[in-house]
Specification:
The protein has 19 helices and 31 strands. It is an alpha/beta fold. The site of one 2-acetamido-2-deoxy-beta-D-glucopyranose (NAG) has 11 residues, from α11. Pfam families: Fn3-like, Glyco_hydro_3, Glyco_hydro_3_C.
């Protein structure tokens, strides 16, 4: 659409910005019939909030949850849903207990790569690193081991894995916490991680739902240079939502994720945690999510509006950290008593929380034995309130032998980008020279910066809440020294990137130079080297390009190792003849050095492939992040106009040749692809789900007399602690809300608990089960034609053929281990979902009549084998 229409559309939004309590809170797109990607960029109201019915494999958990919740009083149900406030208890988030039933309060703890704020835990490779292994077994095992560690510390909900951000722009600060900007790679990784975590008996919290693609302005807040700025709004159309950003969430739900975290940002100008379209219609309706939605920390901005729009748990429970006030707690109690929220909605929230609890077997859990805020053995159990002195840290070592697989996983996730034949090294090189701050220890120790918000020494995780403390960090320099000295060789190092004289003196002597460089990013509440969470650029940090140049201009055997949160620009050095090898090692976790040495010295044959594209400038990736307000104090409008064209799809569309493409990675052996076979599998026609739900169950009675909900006389309240009780029998007084009783017109249907029509694209957790019907089975022969064993990540891409479709989309992969001279069969199934597009009009998946092609590929640009897909009757 022309620029002027754009402007009008978004000006209108600015003016119509809804009050926080407004449950409609919706942005309607202009009546635009063009194929603009932002057509249908709206969040229409959808009520009532769907109640869980125990569908899919949730039946047993649902029955148990209903039985449990049926015994609860209103105050006890409120307790289950409301956090007790920031730093009020041992975990980063804790809801109220149910002492009457000896039910311990549920503990939510970061992070997606290990137990945050605890000792004697493992630091696993980051999500964006393990994605490079393209290995389902690794995804599952890492999830399982992280789950075991959380469980042994007494955690009920691990706040991970991450598929939002997906990685729309590589500068996004938290991309590394997630997996890949490709929805299918992310979807498979998140599903296996969820299964792993939950098989270990801990509830996974898949986050951040949704389109939390940048750190700048993610929350409404005050920014030093700009004053108050409202939360950024990610404006997106329905088709892109389904085909890109929602895809991995659907996989997580299908895998049984017990909880989902709603994000800080707005979508189509509606705060996600009160966006009825996204929570009621999409998550709980279409995707049949049976677990509970919890808010990101202070991402809730309303009481009744968020309750009716499907939020089930508020975290950490207070309106702002330690305000002592809550949108829920007493307000939730009141909203039931004054009839604004129907009881079934609270019952449903409680049942969802308890269903997740039983679904993963939390009823056999152990109490929390650590404290997030203090490492002392004895201290206050209510850290903020400074009361309840007791044993708080039992210092339980929960690591088991996870270090072994952490090392192996990190090696499997390492990507060999260039090799002129020098790798693997024999270890008997005459003089090994190691360069770079990124090779060695931090001057401050491995955990020297709070939440890892600093870059000094080798980089093995990003910064922010998505971190854990290292039990130790094996640096590349440690591991290389041990290797070379063990062989009686010479190994020296310079870890100051600016010590030019020493660097040059050493480079001229070296038989092999190993240069370690990095690029970091993290969560927006910490700024490192001027980067407020999001990266300011894609170049290597700490003058790494100069370091590489200084070494490689004097040494014709320079190997570069990159530790980074995502793509970095390699233009200045990648094609130099003196750069004999390049490795991307991501953020490998505690065994970093051992893992890279395993690859460099050939104990492991590299098999990782890039989970993103490395281009030659930031603009090639599409729209930039928004770093400055664009709308005064109102929400910056982030229009996802590029639609589904991010990462390799953007490069393909613009016909830009990347330096290293998505899916690319070398091995010390070589592979040959042959003999593609496509077999059509009989499957019936697609039947949209129909029929009606049951009526909303109401579990138990409650008194409407406010006198029954008053503070117990004998209860001492730790400072700012959130309880469900009222401090007055007058509800207006108890609410302490200046807007109490304001005549909001709640949307029609919001309180309707009668049976509701089922959603055609829904029907089970993840969506209509027929979307997973297999329509084709694809096979190919992969031969290792080298001389050593190796592993090859074979990829399956599809071309859906339509004028609005990407050139190709990833739809499957397998990592095959093949002996030299041997062949293996690659197999992948193509499901109905894989060949479908989202149709906005019918609100369902449809198979277009465009000609479809399947590719068995070594990367997104090496589409080695091709075959047509005869959709026949399946197509519309
Ligand atoms: C919400 O939408 C309904 C119609 O769906 C309308 O009647 C009501 O006034 C709206 N409420 C607010 C607060 O805008
Ligand atoms: C947009 O479409 C709606 C529904 O079709 C109609 O009621 C409304 O008048 C249209 N608005 C404009 C500005 O054309
Ligand atoms: C609610 O939770 C708090 C904190 O765990 C607890 O002290 C209180 O007794 C609980 N209230 C009820 C009614 O169970
Ligand atoms: C109830 O919620 C309102 C905001 O909607 C808040 O101002 C008030 O402090 C809350 N009351 C309590 C008792 O926390
Ligand atoms: C790391 O910290 C030490 C000690 O403060 C400092 O000398 C060094 O320059 C730092 N390195 C980098 C790369 O910032
Ligand atoms: C990019 O950011 C890094 C980290 O802050 C900085 O070291 C580097 O100088 C920046 N690069 C450019 C080209 O500005
Ligand atoms: C490569 O290294 C040699 C020293 O071995 C040096 O003479 C030459 O200039 C270097 N070439 C480049 C392109 O840096
Ligand atoms: C580097 O230069 C030396 C001396 O000219 C030569 O012997 C050696 O083969 C070169 N190494 C590489 C990797 O090109
Ligand atoms: C507080 O009083 C209630 C009701 O009398 C009683 O059930 C409860 O055990 C008391 N709690 C404490 C901590 O004394
Ligand atoms: C009911 O209680 C809630 C929570 O305090 C409040 O926000 C809402 O305005 C109240 N509604 C009415 C109609 O009094």
């Amino acid at each position: 659409m022309p620029a002027s229409v754009w402007l009008q559309a978004f000006l209108a939004v600015g003016l119509a910005r809804a009050q926080t309590q407004n449950p409609n809170n919706t942005y309607s797109a202009p009546n635009d019939t063009s194929s603009s990607p932002l057509n249908n960029a709206e969040s229409p109201p959808y009520y009532p909030s769907p109640w869980t019915e125990g569908s899919g494999d949730w039946a047993q958990a649902y029955v148990q949850a209903k039985a449990f919740v049926s015994q609860l009083t209103l105050l006890e149900k409120v307790n289950l849903t409301t956090g007790t406030g920031w730093q009020s208890e041992a975990c980063v988030g804790t809801v109220g207990a149910i002492p009457r039933l000896n039910f311990d309060p549920l503990c939510m703890q970061d992070s997606p790569l290990g137990v945050r704020f605890a000792d004697y835990v493992s630091a696993f490779p980051a999500g964006g690193t393990i994605a490079a292994s393209w290995d389902r077994g690794e995804f599952y095992r890492r999830g399982y081991q992280m789950g075991q560690e959380h469980r042994a510390k007494g955690v009920d909900v691990q706040l991970g894995p991450v598929v939002g951000p997906l990685g729309r722009n590589p500068k996004g600060g938290r991309n590394w916490e997630g997996f890949s900007p490709d929805p299918v790679l992310s979807g498979i990784a998140v599903a296996d991680t969820v299964r792993g975590i939950q098989d270990a008996g801990v509830i996974a919290c898949t986050k951040h739902f949704i389109m939390n693609e940048q750190e700048h302005f993610r929350q409404p807040g005050d920014f030093e240079d700009f004053g108050f700025v409202d939360a950024v709004s990610s404006n997106i159309d329905d088709k892109t939502l389904h085909e890109l950003y929602l895809w991995p969430f659907a996989d997580a739900i299908r895998a049984g994720t017990g909880s989902i975290m709603c994000s800080y940002n707005k979508v189509n100008n509606s705060q996600v945690c009160q966006n009825s379209y996204l929570q009621n219609y999409i998550l709980k309706g279409e995707l049949g999510f049976q677990g509970f939605i919890m808010s990101d920390w202070d991402a809730q901005h309303s009481g009744v509006a968020s309750t009716l729009a499907g939020l089930d748990m508020t975290m950490p429970g207070d309106t702002d950290f330690n305000s002592g006030q809550s949108f829920w707690g007493p307000n939730l109690t009141i909203s039931i008593l004054n009839g604004t929220v129907p009881e079934w909605r609270l019952d449903d929230a409680a049942v969802r929380i308890m269903a997740a609890y039983y679904y993963v077997g939390r009823d056999e859990s152990i109490p929390v034995n650590f404290d997030s805020w203090q490492r002392d053995t004895y201290g206050y159990s209510h850290y903020f309130g400074k009361t309840g002195y007791r044993l708080i840290n039992q210092h339980v070592d929960v690591r088991g032998d996870h270090f072994r697989s952490i090392r192996h996983t990190a090696a499997k996730s390492t990507v060999l980008l260039k090799n002129s034949g020098v790798l693997p090294l024999s270890g008997t090189e005459k003089w090994t020279a190691v360069f770079g701050n990124d090779a060695g220890d931090s001057a401050y120790g491995p955990n020297g910066f709070p939440d890892h918000g600093g870059n000094n020494g080798t980089l093995a995780m990003g910064w922010g809440s998505g971190t854990a403390d290292f039990p130790y960090l094996v640096t590349p320099l440690d591991a290389i020294k041990s290797q070379v000295s063990g062989n009686g060789g010479v190994v020296t190092s310079v870890t100051d990137n600016w010590a030019y004289t020493q660097i040059q003196a050493m480079a001229v002597q070296a038989s092999v130079a190993l240069v370690f460089v990095n690029a970091d990013s993290g969560e927006g509440y910490i700024t490192v080297d001027g980067n407020t969470g999001d990266r300011n650029n894609l170049t290597i940090w700490q003058d790494g390009d100069t370091l590489i140049k200084n070494v490689s201009s004097l040494c014709n055997n320079t190997i570069v190792v990159i530790h980074s949160v995502g793509p970095v620009l390699v233009n200045s050095f990648y094609d130099s003849p003196n750069i004999t090898a390049i490795l991307w090692a991501g953020l490998p976790g505690q065994e970093s050095g051992n893992a890279i040495a395993d690859i460099i010295y050939g104990r492991e044959n590299p098999g990782g492939k890039l989970p993103f594209t490395i281009g030659s400038n930031a603009a090639e990736y599409g729209p930039d992040l928004i770093y400055e307000p664009t709308n005064g104090h109102d929400s910056p409008q982030d229009n996802f106009e590029e639609g589904v064209f991010i990462d390799y799809r953007a490069f393909d569309k613009q016909n830009i040749t990347p330096i290293y493409e998505f899916g690319f990675g070398l091995s010390y052996t070589t592979f040959e692809y042959s003999n593609i076979k496509v077999v059509k599998v009989p499957a019936g026609a697609y039947t949209p789900t129909s029929g009606q739900t049951i009526a909303a169950p109401t579990l138990g009675n409650y008194s409407t007399d406010p006198a029954d909900y008053q503070w117990p006389a004998n209860l001492t309240r730790p400072s700012t602690y959130i309880f469900p009780y009222l401090n007055s029998t007058d509800l207006v007084t108890a609410s302490q809300d200046p807007e109490y009783g304001l005549n909001y017109t709640w949307p029609a249907g919001a309180t309707d608990g009668s049976p509701q029509a089922r959603i055609p694209a829904g029907g089970a957790p993840g969506g209509n089960p027929q979307l997973w019907d297999v329509l084709f089975s694809v096979e190919a022969t992969i031969t290792n034609n080298g001389t050593i064993p190796g592993e090859e990540v074979v990829q399956l891409y599809l071309s859906l053929g339509g004028p609005e479709d990407p050139k190709i989309v990833l739809r499957g992969f397998d990592r095959l281990s093949i002996q030299p001279g041997q062949s293996a069969t690659f197999h992948a199934d193509v499901t109905r979902r894989d060949v479908s597009n989202w149709d906005v009009a019918s609100q369902n998946w449809v198979i277009s009549s465009y000609k479809k092609t399947v590719y068995v590929a070594a990367s997104s640009r090496k589409l080695v084998l091709t075959a047509g897909l005869d959709l026949g009757d399946y197509a519309s």
